[in-house]
Write a structure and sequence with these properties.
alpha+beta; 465 residues; 5-stranded mixed beta sheet; 17 helices
Length: 465
């Protein structure tokens, strides 16, 4: 943010930070909070603690101690942030978005760092991963909550290493989908309300995650991978059987699906179901206008059918209640994929290699637990709201220095995530009040042909200059 723009917003920023006054017991801590947030909102190229401190004439150690050792209640700051979000984002159609982001780091002392897939660079590299829950409501958006993904082998199983980084013994490895459920529970416990939730296939691939949301009464529309198993019609389930052991003498587990000879009633992948099931083959595609971008209208076509997830193990998995399985396909956008029908062999390798790749229309699969009374257009609107979290990450990293942390303790990292959410909440609200956003969510209320609003990103620099 340009210096002149920030100076004009200082009175509003002070009112924003005054909401957190009771989270800090000393005036020096409140002063450090103001410097840190101003630094994140400033035009500094690098927004780690040292450049911020030097910019405002403070010894860097002051901010370092504020983040790592000072006795202020960051859990209370998080709860206060949730309170403000509850006041400003209380809309029935608000969409919570779950995703993770990656922070490239050097060395081995940053909590959670290891060589792993780094989406920021698109390759395997040294990085730390954080899981986030964002919220979009109308033209507003914010980062609700975040947590560190702690790798199992290199961190969680080495408690001495964790203790050196200040990671409490109770903080252990959790899969990202479980962290996401914890973020949802914590924010909802603090009063944040969600009309919907959405997420990508990395979370949708876990049936325990989907059933966990369903058990919590959360409406969701999430992307799932093509290999997710289930049924378009519920199969017969055996609660018990006269033969309590199978042919090998092992005890049978019940309840279980009664699979008949030839694989009848066996769960099929969603990719197979959308291609072969009569529930999908008997219906045509319905086009929907997703948005308008610089190249013109973006149109997808979709169809849906009833779907029952498989829960439990592969052999004893049982169906859930009826959900909705959606297949959506871009009308114009294509991608390169491997052609599985032509595998290279020793004979005629050159010709086979030429057939090894092909282009096909981009296809996505979504599962929702919404009742059938909710129109398909509404579900697609929720599903395609996921762009908001990607743009939020861009803004948080580019404008607020989300990935600029240079810390060696768990407390400092968690506090950095929380205070970045505080800064993002202020920035989003300030820009919205000044007309910084040009558009809101997509209009998918009707099939293609009725128009839809574009949804450019926050664009803080362009909006405030």
């Amino acid at each position: 943010m340009e210096a002149a723009a920030l100076e004009g917003l200082l009175p509003e920023l002070d009112r924003h930070l005054a909401r957190f006054r009771d989270c800090f017991s000393r005036k020096e801590q409140r002063a450090s909070l103001r410097v840190l947030v101003r630094g994140q909102l400033s035009g500094l190229e690098r927004k780690s603690l040292e450049p911020i401190a030097l910019e405002f004439g403070l010894p860097p150690r002051n901010l370092q101690q504020f983040m790592s050792q000072a006795g202020w209640d960051h859990d209370r700051v998080r709860a206060k942030t949730h309170e403000i979000i509850r006041e400003q984002f209380d809309e029935a159609d608000s969409v919570g978005i779950i995703d993770e982001t990656y922070h490239a780091k050097k060395g081995d002392r940053t909590p959670g760092v290891q060589r792993q897939w780094c989406g920021t660079k698109g390759t395997t590299d040294n990085c730390t991963v954080t899981v986030h829950l964002a919220l979009a409501a109308g033209e507003s958006r914010c980062l609700v909550d975040s947590d560190l993904f702690l790798p199992e082998e290199s961190w969680s199983n080495h408690r001495d290493r964790c203790r050196k980084a200040g990671i409490p013994d109770e903080v252990v490895y959790r899969p990202k989908w479980r962290i996401a459920l914890e973020l949802f529970d914590r924010s909802r416990g603090n009063g944040v309300r969600y009309g919907w939730l959405t997420f990508d296939a990395g979370y949708g691939m876990h049936s325990d995650f989907l059933t966990g949301l369903d058990q919590r009464g959360a409406l969701y529309v999430g992307e799932v991978p093509g290999h997710l198993p289930g049924w378009t019609k519920p199969p017969p389930v055996m609660l018990k059987e006269h033969a309590s052991r199978d042919r090998t003498g092992h005890p049978r587990a019940f309840p279980r699906v009664k699979v008949l000879p030839g694989g009848m009633h066996k769960a099929k992948s969603v990719e197979s179901l959308t291609r072969r099931s009569p529930a999908f083959r008997s219906q045509g595609w319905t086009p929907f206008h997703v948005k308008d971008d610089s190249c013109g209208p973006v149109v997808w076509k979709a169809k849906e059918a009833s779907f029952h997830l498989r829960t439990g193990g592969r052999d004893v998995g049982t169906p859930t209640r009826a959900h909705r399985l959606i297949i959506a396909q871009s009308v114009l956008e294509t991608r390169v994929v491997k052609d599985r029908t032509h595998k290279p062999n020793a004979k005629n390798k050159k010709r086979r290699r030429q057939r090894a790749v092909k282009r096909e229309l981009v296809t996505k699969y979504f599962v929702s637990n919404a009742p059938m009374s909710v129109p398909l257009a509404r579900l697609l609107k929720v599903a395609f709201t996921r762009w908001v979290v990607e743009r939020s990450f861009q803004d948080a990293k580019g404008e607020l220095g989300l990935s600029h942390f240079e810390v060696r303790t768990y407390t400092s990292l968690i506090r950095h995530l929380i205070l970045t959410a505080v800064s993002f909440l202020f920035l989003s609200r300030a820009l919205r009040r000044r007309g910084g956003e040009k558009g809101g969510a997509n209009d998918l209320s009707t099939p293609a042909g009725d128009g839809a609003a574009d949804h450019p990103g926050l664009g803080p620099r362009e909006a405030l200059v």
